[in-house]
Amino acid sequence: MNGKKTTVALCYDFDGTLAPGCMQEYSFMRALGEDPKQFWHKSHILAKKQQADDIASYMQLMLDECRKKGLKPTRKAFRLYGQGIPLYKGVETWFKRINQYARQKGVNLRHYIISSGLKEMIEGTSIAQNFHKIYASSFMYDKKDEAIWPAVTLNYTSKTQFLFRINKGCEDITDNTSINQYVPTKDRPVPFQNIIYIGDGETDIPCMKMINQHGGHAIAVYHPDKESARQTAQKLVQDKRVNIALPANYATHQPIEKYVQAVIDKIVADTQIEKYETIYCQE
Description:
The chain is of the alpha/beta class. It is 43% helix and 17% strand. The chain is built from ten helices and seven strands. Strand 6, helix 9 and strand 7 form a beta-alpha-beta unit.
């Protein structure tokens, strides 16, 4: 039997998935002296007025508000704002625990962020080093390291391209050639059935649905203390967008840990069965 390790991709949204609320609502908006509701209202108005994408609008508004308040929108500043983002219970120890479990099962586990939030802020969090890749909205910067224009905007549909990039092994965001080339399913480094997607909201639905339809596993998480969030997540189960809805508590022995461990077990078993069937069907 081939001793090559099975690769499993664990893909996460960020806002509402690993952290409660939106990342901009903490240190960044405190620095601006901005009320979060007011900021998002202005972003929505800007999008309507300019007939623009919501993600591009909030990014433009971030720059506009920084200029008004005399704050320099540098990469360094955004990373510092990222340090103030609170995380759900258990997140900081989650990666070590689930990686150890995967290793015991002979699995190469990779973690990815696929988020409409700001990459630079995620890079400032205490968990950034755990991700193989962070795919998120980001800015272009001038010679003074100040943001001047959105470089990447990830909305609910554009998120799905990064699942294909992971699936095909075309992880360079600037590579627009390899991603569109035909690759036989058996030659793709991370089959869709080996992808686990964890998200919480509307911007995750296309990713969740796609992974679900391709035999992978989609998990909807919700704030443990908010009944409305639980109901929203349960509706995703009812609508067959996700496999399961679980509270966003990543501590030891909590349901999400047990479920992801079970999915890893299933992927290992399915891979082993496929290997046996391939070998003995050729005899």
